[in-house]
Amino acid sequence: MPKKNDTKKIKPAAVAKLSASKKVATKKAPAKKAPAKKAPAKKRSTPISSYQGRKSEKYMSAAMKKHFLAVLMDWREHLREEMQKTFDHLKNKGESYADPIDRASQEEEFAFELRTRDRERKLISKIAMSLEQIKQDDYGYCYACGIEIGVKRLEARPTATHCIDCKTLDEIKEKQLGG
Whole-model pTM above 0.70? Predict the structure, then answer.
């Protein structure tokens, strides 16, 4: 940058170019935001609200099963959409960089996404098991002791297979055995 004493030496045309380039820079900033917008994603239907049962309603009634069936199906569909987005991202961004640091960053990003999708793949299989349990009228009952898991627990974790007491005991045993 020129010193204060040097400002007298700058030609008016150069000052006009500097001010024009500043104006251009400020005009370009909003223009960069427009291309950054992605194509609008397919909007999911409104989230399913928690189940509001009636006082005299039997546990795992037809309405309750229908509710959890809808929750599980919606969750599975959402996970499948996310997996498809990841596959598309890996295909489109699969370019190799000349710089080893850039390449390492990209590989780390891909590895993270793949680990996340692997967990989601396992979750999809648990959702499929829960859907099968609904069909067999076994959904909502603990595998270990056979008592009701509870609507609140199923709302929090629709793939739950154990009641809160059995799950707590399993976690205590796991801590003791695992370290």
Answer: no
